[in-house]
Design brief:
- Helix 2 (25-37) crosses helix 12.
- The chain has a 9-stranded mixed β-sheet, with helices on both faces.
- The chain has 2 domains: 3-95 and 325-370, no CATH class; 167-293, no CATH class.
- It is an alpha+beta fold and 374 residues long.
- It contains 14 helices and 9 strands.
C-alpha cells in the first residue's frame, strides 16, 4: 500500500450527514485497514488498536478528533456503499499489480457462514472472488445472495476486471455460454469444468475421450502430458488429454471461441489405496496440453491460497458481523489485507503470524503497508 491507497479510496462518498460528522471517512477506512491487518476481527478490536497506535496512525492520516468509537466505525461500515468500496479496491489493485496478462485468474465463490440473520430473514453472504494466481492476490469480488446466483454474479465480476491475455478458470457453475462469451469479450481465454449442469454436452465429451482412449487415439488429433508428484506418503499422477475435435459436439458453435476439449485424470496412491478422478473441460485454448494442464492445476490455488486463508487466518466463517453492508465491506478489508500480507516476503512466516507481528511491530506493519508495490 502506498499513496495510491489514499488516492483510490478518497473518492468514496461518505454516507453520513455532514453536520454530525466528527471523523473523516478516509481516517476510518485507513484505521480499519491497519487494524484488520494487525489482527482485529471486529469493531471493538479496531477501536482498541487505534487507541494503542494513535501516534503511529497520525503519521499517515490526521485523526484530528482522536479515535472514533467502535459503534461509529460499525455504523459507517454498515452504511458505506459496498460497490463503491469494491470499485476502489479493484482500482487500487489494478494500479498496483503490474501486468496480469498471461497468467491464470481463478474465479470461485465462498459463503461467510455465520453472516445470516434469522430475524430479518437475511441469507448468508456469498461472494465470488477473482484470484490472480501468479501474483497471489485477490483482484476483486462481487456479492451474490445464493450459490445459484453465481451465474449472474460472475459476468458482473468479469466486467470490472482487466483480463486481456489471461486464462480464466471456473468450476462447473461457471460453465455457461454467456460467461464464455464475456471472457472472450474481455480478450481472455477460458478453461471451464464440464459437469452434469451441461448434461448432453458432458456425455458427448465423456464418450469422445472414452472411445479415443480405447483406440489409443488412433487417427485422433490430440496432445497428452503426464506429471507425477509425491510427498507425505502419497503419490499423485496427473494426466491431461486435449483435442481440437469440437465439431462432434452438438451446439459447439454457441460457445464463443471454443477451440478444444480436455480430460484431466488424477490418480492418487495413498496407504495402499488407489483412487482415480476424471474431469472434463471446455476451453478456448489452442492445442497445448501443457498450458491447459497447468491452468487446471493453478485453479486450485484459489482454494488453498485464498479460501483456506480466509477461514484459517481470518476465521471468516466465525464472524457474526451482519448488519447492513457490514459483512460485505468487512470481507473486502480481509481480502485487501490478505493481499498485503502475501506480498511481504522478507520474513518466512505464515499469514497468521504476519498478522500477529503487524500488531506488535510498527516497523514491520509499515513494511507490509508501504514496503513495495504489488
Amino acid at each position: 500500500m502506498d499513496a495510491k491507497f489514499l488516492e483510490h479510496f478518497s473518492g468514496i462518498e461518505d454516507p453520513r450527514i455532514e453536520r454530525r460528522k466528527r471523523h473523516e471517512l478516509l481516517d476510518i477506512l485507513f484505521l480499519s485497514v491497519c487494524a484488520v491487518l494487525a489482527g482485529a476481527d471486529g469493531w471493538e478490536a479496531i477501536e482498541d488498536f487505534g487507541h494503542t497506535k494513535l501516534q503511529w496512525l497520525r503519521k499517515y492520516v490526521p485523526l484530528n478528533n482522536g479515535i472514533p468509537r467502535h459503534d461509529t466505525i460499525a455504523r459507517v461500515l454498515c452504511r458505506l456503499d459496498p460497490q463503491a468500496l469494491q470499485s476502489s479496491f479493484i482500482g487500487w489493485m489494478q494500479a498496483c499489480v503490474q501486468a496480469v496478462g498471461g497468467q491464470v485468474v481463478a474465479i470461485d465463490g465462498k459463503t461467510v457462514r455465520r453472516s445470516f440473520d434469522t430475524a430479518s430473514r437475511k441469507h448468508s453472504l456469498h461472494l465470488v472472488s477473482a484470484w490472480a494466481v501468479g501474483h497471489g492476490v485477490v483482484l476483486g469480488q462481487v456479492k451474490t445472495e445464493a450459490k445459484s446466483n453465481e451465474i449472474t454474479a460472475i459476468p458482473a465480476l468479469l466486467e470490472l476486471l482487466e483480463l486481456k491475455g489471461c486464462i480464466v478458470t471456473l468450476d462447473a457453475m461457471g460453465c455457461q455460454k454467456a460467461i464464455a462469451a464475456k471472457i472472450r469479450e474481455k480478450k481472455a481465454d477460458y478453461v471451464l469444468v464440464l459437469k452434469a449442469n451441461q448434461e448432453g454436452l458432458h456425455e458427448q465429451v465423456e464418450e469422445f475421450f472414452s472411445t479415443a482412449r480405447r483406440s489409443g487415439f488412433k487417427g485422433v488429433k490430440h496432445e497428452y502430458v503426464e506429471q507425477t508428484e509425491g510427498g507425505h506418503g502419497r503419490v499423485e499422477v496427473r494426466r491431461c488429454w486435449q483435442s481440437p475435435h469440437i465439431e462432434y459436439l452438438q451446439g459447439h458453435g454457441q460457445w464463443a471461441g471454443l477451440k478444444s476439449i480436455a480430460l484431466v485424470e488424477s490418480e492418487r496412491h495413498s496407504n495402499g489405496k488407489v483412487s482415480v478422478e476424471r474431469r472434463y473441460y471446455l476451453s478456448s485454448l489452442k492445442l497445448d496440453a501443457q498450458a491447459l494442464g497447468q491452468a487446471v492445476r493453478a485453479h486450485w490455488g484459489i482454494e488453498n491460497s485464498l479460501l483456506w486463508a480466509l477461514d484459517v487466518t481470518y476465521r471468516e466463517d466465525d464472524s457474526r458481523i451482519r448488519r447492513g453492508h457490514a459483512a460485505e465491506n468487512f470481507s473486502t478489508l480481509r481480502r485487501l489485507t490478505l493481499n498485503l500480507l502475501k506480498q511481504e516476503t522478507t520474513r518466512p512466516l505464515s499469514q497468521r503470524k504476519k498478522r500477529m507481528v503487524c500488531g506488535w511491530d510498527d516497523d514491520y506493519r509499515e513494511k507490509v503497508l508501504y514496503g513495495r508495490n504489488l
